[in-house]
Amino acid sequence: LAGENFEQTPLRRTFKSKVLARYPENVEWNPFDQDAVGMLCMPKGLAFKTQADSREPQFHSFIITREDGSRTFGFSLTFFEEVTSKQICSAMQTLYHMHNAEYDILHTPPTNEKDSCSSTGDCNGTSVSKLQRFNSYDISRDTLYVSKCICLITPMSFMKACKKVLEQLHQAVTSPQPPPLPLESYIYNILYEVPLPPAGRSLKFSGVYGPIICQRPSTSELPLFDFPVKEVFELLGVENVVQLFTCALLEFQILLYSQ
User: Fold this and answer.
1) How many domains is the chain partitioned into structurally?
2) Does the predicted model carry a pTM greater than 0.85?
3) pLDDT tens, 169-180?
4) Boundaries of each UDENN domain copy (predicted)?
5) CA 138: distance to chain centroid?
6) FRET pair for 28, CA 20 to 30 Å: which of 91, 92, 143, 205?
7) Beta-bridge partner residues of 15
8) Nearest to residue 194, comparing CAs of 224, 149, 156?
């Protein structure tokens, strides 16, 4: 990606992602913005890993706000799949050869420094070089994985229900046993047959492996907020949450900065 630090090893760099498929092709109330969805689903771009790295699926949500102020909600589950293309694996190996060659040129000490390194047995250039090569890729021994994402875009923020839907779809794809019904039938069901619950009511529908429940507040209740407050405290800490709440009550301007 643009602005990437090329001193990083190729496995630590990020690459531009693209939308592979979407269904349905057109939705009247929600024209599809491929660039916006691609950027919000994978804000850091495509990532590569090997079998030595953690590859647990990650879930996040986002909001698309249009010029008229209308909002649509997105829910993404990012996971890693094994790269089966030998061409991509070879390209990653080539990137590592280029990276190591450039690194050696940039970090090779002058001739007189080489002698002092060998005599003392302690050379910063050597130790850093070993550190750089630790996160390496060897096509003959390593398995390469690449990030992939499935996303639901909805008119309301049913976070818990959407998370369960995506997790069950991912489980069905990665399970050695096929799901009870074809995967397409579950996708069709949630898009066309599951209605939006009326205000003040809850709705229960069948997922791939179990029931999923979503609840919509009545007009006399607070707006729908389906996110666990516990996570706010885990991310910010009690003192920061109290300070944030105080600033909101005092009508201070609040800026949240994050990677």
Assistant:
1) 1
2) no
3) 999 988 888 888
4) 1-259
5) 25
6) 205
7) 46
8) 156
